[in-house]
Design goal:
There is one protein chain. The chain is α+β, with helices and mostly antiparallel strands. The chain has helices spanning 75-92, 146-149, and strands spanning 26-39, 46-56, 63-71, 107-115, 121-128. Strands 3-2-1-4-5 form a five-stranded antiparallel beta sheet, with helices on one face. A hairpin with a 6-residue loop joins strand 1 (26-39) and strand 2.
């Protein structure tokens, strides 16, 4: 048992005003307000944990979290995470990232969907630029993988997480 240094009574404690319901599906303007490298639960991979603060057009101040797998035992999960990182970099105008701090402060559009299950919440399913991003700041898209090595043209199919 641990004794508190003071007595707390219900009538003296503030009432919370936080709303943890998922945001409605759609596109939102957001700012990346935190980005950290974390290790996966299994300990065999790494991901970038991003915190996005909504700036508009509604729900300003609400926070959404997303993970970008950058090293994973599943090559597909790693590929998807790296594609997402590339989309974020193009949206915020970064040609190169060597530190997660470079992502912080980036403003972009994020597409939210509502995920259901044991815990309802939002999941990020897309990223886009909010305005004009200097083309000189963004590296041109270069496909990776076996088709790129063979010189085959890159397919314009939707990424796996964007398909329904």
């Amino acid at each position: 048992m641990a004794f508190l240094d003071e007595e707390f009574t219900l009538d003296t404690l503030p009432v919370g005003t936080s709303n943890f319901e998922p945001l409605p599906e759609g596109w939102y303007n957001a700012s990346i307000t935190d980005a950290q490298i974390k290790t996966t639960k299994m300990g065999d991979g790494k991901y970038i944990a991003c915190k996005y603060t909504i700036t508009g057009p509604s729900h300003q101040g609400r926070v959404v979290f997303g993970h970008l797998n950058i090293k994973n035992a599943s090559t597909k999960a790693e590929e998807i995470g790296r594609q997402q990182l590339g989309e974020i970099m193009r949206a915020i105008g970064l040609a190169k990232v060597t530190d997660t701090d470079q992502l912080i402060g980036g403003n972009l559009g994020i597409k939210l969907v509502v995920k259901t299950g044991e815990y309802a919440g939002n999941e990020i399913k897309g990223y886009k630029s909010l305005g004009s991003v200097s083309p000189a700041a963004v590296a041109p898209f270069k496909p990776v993988g076996p088709s790129a090595a063979a010189g085959a043209p890159a397919a314009k199919a939707s990424p796996p997480w964007a398909r329904k």
